[in-house]
């Protein structure tokens, strides 16, 4: 259960990062509210998962999922560069997250 919560919390990190960008410095109400809610849920889920997963592994997986998700949203929906070197680096992040889970 801890791993499922950790993955969901990592996905919520993507939500709050995109909402933070869309909030325009907290000047837009709806994205700011989404940011706060997703941040609280993401951190709460991380805290829950860390009861059973070592902090180094849990935090690295959480950050990796959030970074990967945010980069993918940026490339697929926000017009950010989808260059080959960038995609290769994201594949390395995936390999790291999978490796941490396997060798946990």
Structural class by helix and strand composition: mainly alpha
Q: Calculate Rg over CA atoms.
A: 14 Å
What's the pLDDT, averaged over the residues? 95
- Shape annotation: flat
Strand tally, please? 0
DSSP summary: helix tally: 4
Largest sheet: none
Oligomer: single chain
Distance between the termini: 15 Å
> How large is the share of residues in beta strands?
under 5%
User: How are helices and strands ordered from N to C?
Assistant: HHHH
Q: Which stretches are poorly predicted, pLDDT < 50 over at least 5 residues? A: none
**Helix content range:** over 70%
3D architecture notes:
The protein contains four helices and no strands. With 104 residues, it is an all-alpha fold. The model has no long low-confidence stretch (mean pLDDT 95). The longest helix has 23 residues, at 55-77. Helix 1 runs antiparallel to helix 2, helix 1 (2-22) crosses helix 3 and helix 3 packs antiparallel against helix 4 (84-102).
């Amino acid at each position: 259960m801890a791993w499922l919560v950790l993955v969901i919390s990592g996905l919520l990190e993507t939500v709050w990062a995109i909402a933070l960008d869309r909030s325009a410095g907290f000047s837009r109400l709806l994205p700011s509210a989404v940011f706060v809610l997703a941040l609280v849920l993401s951190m709460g889920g991380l805290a829950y998962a860390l009861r059973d997963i070592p902090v180094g592994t849990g935090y690295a997986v959480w950050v990796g999922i959030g970074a990967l998700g945010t980069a993918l949203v940026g490339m697929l929906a926000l017009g950010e560069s989808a260059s080959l070197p960038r995609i290769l680096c994201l594949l390395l992040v995936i390999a790291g997250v999978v490796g941490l889970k396997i060798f946990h």
